[in-house]
Amino acid sequence: MKIVSTKIDVRNQVKEWRKEGLTVGFVPTMGYLHEGHESLVKRAVAENDRVVVSIFVNPMQFGPKEDLATYPRDLEADSKLCEAAGAALIFHPEPEEMYEEAFCSYVDMNGLTNALCGLSRPVHFRGVCTVVNKLFNIVMPDKAYFGEKDAQQLAVVKRMVKDLDMDIEIVGCPIIREEDGLAKSSRNTYLSPEGRKQALVLSKAIFAGKQMVLDGEKDTSVVLKAMRDIIEKASMARIDYVEMVDVNTMKGIDTIQGEILCAIAVYIGDEARLIDNFMLSL
Ligand code: AMP
Asked: For 189-224, how does the pLDDT look when each residue is reduced to its tens digit (9 = 90+)?
């Protein structure tokens, strides 16, 4: 496995693979990799001849008061995980390699991003769309792999690829959890031992809400109320949002039907803002 930091090195490698007729899978990440990322890399390895993983903490998708400076990084551990999972190339650029000084072109979206995380993180999805676009243009993969953990991001990227006629298949992969239910996240490292305990209310609320829907509950307000009650039991938890939306439009729904996304974002003290969700097709 190679590690490169320039766009031209990625392009040259991918061109060589293309000449040999090989297919290319791509897993974009911000690094500090865990079993969630690993599941994406393994899926990509199973479905493509060669796999590129990008590790880039993209400044453009962080708001001014967010955790860009403290976001955890560990390239050595990340490369071990990628190599063991079968990746062929890591692309690890510096911000200057991705954004030259005169940079002023953006990819943005309306609608899908005016909900959920887009409301509390107003510049986030513009940063995501722009960097994913750039990474797709650099790697030019056949397939790209995204986690359902970031369900709105997955929907946004799928929409962008359709709207802008990009010839890339977007593959969504299930949420990987800790044994006790907490969704794996690089940001879990911010949690104190007490915060880690209290963070369990996210997955508890998600599992309870999902079970209510599976048991036939159709009234959104009943499900969301039950979920809020569970989260509010944790003294450190502060709800950002607890929402039920149509996964294709991200618009709120009163009656639970069709393809739904139930998504939550919760601050645990001032330690971390965590997200979780469930999706169902009814
Ligand atoms: P990040 O490094 O947080 O930007 O995540 C990179 C990719 O890994 C995104 O597509 C995430 O949705 C995915 N991912 C992160 N955590 C998980 C998880 N627990 N299960 C599945 N996918 C995940």
From this structure: 999 999 999 999 999 999 999 999 999 999 999 999
Q: What is the DSSP string of 247-259?
A: TTT--B-SB--SE
Cβ neighbours of residue 149 closer than 8 Å, sequence gap 6 or more:
36, 175, 176, 183, 184, 185, 275, 276, 277
Q: What CA–CA distances, in Å, run from 120 to 64, 124, 253?
A: 12, 9, 20
**What are the sequence ranges of the domains in the chain?**
2-173, 186-276
Query: In terms of CATH architecture, what is 186-276?
Result: 2-Layer Sandwich (3.30)
Mutate to test the pocket of ligand 1, among 26, 27, 29, 277 (most ligand atoms within 8 A of CB): 29
> Nearest Cα to 60, choosing from 156, 155, 126?
126
Q: Tell me: domain 2-173, CATH 3.30.10.20, correct?
A: no
Q: Ligand 1 centroid vs 28 CA: distance in angstroms?
A: 9
